[in-house]
Write a structure and sequence with these properties.
about 650 residues, Heat Shock Protein 90, Ribosomal Protein S5, domain 2, Four Helix Bundle (Hemerythrin (Met), subunit A), 22 helices, binds adenosine-5'-diphosphate, binds magnesium ion
Amino acid sequence: MSDATNDSATASGTHEFKAEVAAVLRLVTNSLYTNREIFLRELVSNASDALDKARFVALVDKDLRDQELTPHIQIIADQARGVLVIEDVGIGMSEQEATQNLGTIAHSGTLRFLEQAATEQAEGKRPDLDLIGQFGVGFYSAFMVADRIDVHSLSARPGHEPIHWSSDGTSFSIGPSARKLRGTRIELHLKDDAKEFLDRWRIEGIVKRYSNFVLYPIKLQRVDDKGVNDGDNRQINAASAFWTRSAKDVSDDDYKEFYTHVMGGFVLPGDEPLARLHLSLDAPIQFKAVLYVPGRRPPDLFNEDAKALQLYARRVLVMESCDKLLPTYLRFVRGVVDSEDLPLNVSREMLQEHQSLAAIRRQLTRKVLKLLEDTATDEPENYARLWEEFGVFIKEGLHTDNAHREQITGLLRFASTGSDGKLVSLHEYVEAMPEGQEAIYYITGDSTAALARSPHLEAVRARGYAVLLMTDAVDEWVVQDLREHEGKPLRSVTQGGDLGLSKDANETKDGDEPSAEASDIDPLLRVAKQVLGDRVKEVRASSRLTDSTACLVDDEGGLSRNMERILRMANRDVPTRPRILELNPGHAFVRAANELAAASLEAAPEAGSEPPQPLRTWVELLHDQANLAEGTVADPAGVVLRIQSLLDRVAGLRTEEPTP
Ligand code: ADP
Ligand code: MG
């Protein structure tokens, strides 16, 4: 009691703001802000804090005033007076508290940031407006829209008189008020250019955007320009943040509805989320989160400004899209994070570096990876869809998130020749490997159907080994990152060199065909290299073919053909390097060609003499086929000509070869 008397003796009257408040006010009113609407978020969150405090204090202090009042926040848009009112029945402020709390700046960073922005503006530079937009300056932000603010407040603690604080932004006065109920009523006398904030739809929009999940009902009433109350005092927020409830009390419908909200209010049928996560963690940091894996890939995932998780601090939205809450490769996850430990009033820059954020990110990353794992195990069909939409992002993580490498590897799925169109994990592939298979075989390209028919697979498949068919551009990096799995090396069937197939493999096929030794077709190899010249690096006998005559393989250590293709698509200048032509020594046509080659070498053994027709055309056609099997020929017209000449001969129309 005596305190209160004391207060009024020292505080009543007109006062100058503390220097730093004056500076902040100057900057705030200096129209630095582009995003003025955030003042309402700030005042609503103050009202909500005040209601929280009253509830909390009531637990220990039975003497609080007006305990029977239902906590709520009332907004009144008074068109007649040009005044916007925000009122609560919370803890209120004594005279001393009002002087103290509305006359100083709690956050030292605020002033520094604003001063820097103002300096930049004075220097003719454009301060980062977006940053400013994210910046809260609490109560003072109301001076962006008001040229005078009246605060009537009655402390809920007994022994205090109601007070009236009033300021035009340069100084403030404090005196008695007629307020009867506990709590605070803030009256903003709106500037002429801020009358839009009296509009019902505008207010509702702002409240829904930032304060929808504030726990207390926010009601809105409008008084028209003749002073007539429109009688409509609807609640305009959801007034509950179900993420604060225990997951078992939340219905599927609640999650569904909230998903729609997270996705911007619109979800097509069939696009329902593939997985969801509801978290409530207390240690080491307190936060709650509701996260979804969308049912369809959001269209903005490859954009610089892709949407990320929404960040709330105590149920008030502080960032619409905070990309620091999850690693980039998990950017397809959508939802909200609400922390008790984050300040509302810091810049985005400072927020991003807040150590709580890093702690939340660590937790979320672990939990999301676990969610993906669980989905893969418990709902394989869902996971297959999830992988279809987001696998390409998860693969990025293999390269960027070394700490979770093992988990991410477990999430990988690939098409395989051995699984009937189903995707397989590396573990499943290794499990299914027959006796004697030493490597995980794969091929990269742009369509699984074409890859599955590639001649490179023949010998491997003939042994009953499956081949992974990799069609994402990132797969080239995935295989480089992985190198091996469960002790088995990854081996491309298009890479030159030994495929690691067992030596006696040829014997395991039809016994009556003689085992074809590489040296058997030496003459053809020499002739072919002579005909093809620099177009191939080398011509050699193949151990990877059974049915086809020829294929091209990549130089060991060089870029794969697919990698060259990808880099070229990305407009990178990649020189085409000649590849190695492999011929199938077991194929009847190759052997026939070889006989011809042997005969021609015997007839003209000296090097440099031109091989005769039709040998030259045959070699060209073998090379053509190897290229065609991969879907790329440099000279399609030439191929057509050669095939036609062959057909002409078959039809007996021609005995001579065309001269190219
Ligand atoms: P912050 O909310 O971050 O503390 P603000 O500038 O928004 O900073 O508010 C300053 C202080 O003013 C608050 O901490 C609180 O003590 C007091 N205050 C503001 N609004 C209210 C209110 N509606 N009821 C009670 N106290 C309030
Ligand atoms: Mg505040």
